[in-house]
Amino acid sequence: MKKIILAAIAAVAIVPVASAQKFELLPFGDMDQWQTREIKESAILGGQTRNIYEIAPEKTVKGDIPYKPTGGSPWATSNILAKVKGITKTSNAVWPDTRAGRDRAAKLETIIERCKAIGIINIDVLVGGSIFLGEMIEPISSTSNPYSNMIMGIPFTKRPKTLRFDYRLEMPEKDSRIYSSGFGRKKTLPGHDSAEVFIILQRRWEDADGNLYAKRVGTGRQRFDKTTGGWVSGHDIPVQYGDITSKPGYKDYMGLIPEEDSYYARNSHGKMVPVKEVGWDAPDAAPTHILVMASAASGKAYIGTPGLTLWIDNIGLTY
């Protein structure tokens, strides 16, 4: 009898170990390493030197040099070097922030970036601070079709269970949003915005004409609209596979990406083209690419609540 009881206890003890999830931090997902870019803006804008930041090995780069992902970092940010009508301008809505001691995190904020030069340019652009797996193509020369300047997603073939991360959120008390793309009148819209984090797995292919298509393999997407009052550690967004439109908890924003809002990537000829999502894939399909983004805004570009701030740290995948 004693042997049977001991065997039963041993079996119970093994269960948590066997069912434990394995966590893999995404490269540079601890948000501890940052590259500083020191860029002098055009004299007509004041000629100030501004710092903008990238998630990459520690380094300081001086000059208006377009950024390319370096040192094995797969991350890009909404921070940009822009050159419009011969004017050099920068925008920075993502910073490294100290969490505790030497531990750092990514701070993402929704801001209004102003660019004013009398007689030449006078625009306000709302920027939602964001980080994503991919690349921002610099220098930016226009605010039209912002997705065409972003390579969204990187090659990936695994099937994770969740996207896991630590986060903190500060939501302004104002119950409004701003639309400002730099062209036309700035508008105030009702209701505050939300922060958003998502993981999308796609199976992509290219046709004979260089067009890119994708089917949705896996989806995990969540919006956050309440101040947390501190850090929330080890938050999981489950990845659901196949067509999720009839599953519990499905929201409209989790659906397929509309063609007019398609993200972009380079085709085999090096040309930037939209990746058109054309349907849901089989639940057991293998992905070719992973998209991960965290943003202090959700919905359409150039719409958000200024001051909305999201912190992200220790982002990775569980299996």
Description of the molecule:
The protein has 319 residues and is mostly beta strands. It has one domain (23-313): Jelly Rolls (Sandwich), CATH 2.60.120. It has 1 helix and 25 strands. It has one helix at residues 2-19, and strands at 23-25, 35-40, 49-54, 59-62, 75-77, 80-84, 87-91, 94-100, 103-117, 121-128, 130-136, 150-152, 154-155, 162-170, 176-179, 187-190, 195-206, 212-224, 232-238, 240-241, 264-266, 272-280, 289-295, 303-304, 309-318. The chain is globular and about 55 Å long.
Summarize the structure.
The protein is mainly beta and 319 residues long. It has one helix at 2-19; strands at 23-25, 35-40, 49-54, 59-62, 75-77, 80-84, 87-91, 94-100, 103-117, 121-128, 130-136, 150-152, 154-155, 162-170, 176-179, 187-190, 195-206, 212-224, 232-238, 240-241, 264-266, 272-280, 289-295, 303-304, 309-318. The radius of gyration is 22 Å and the shape is globular.
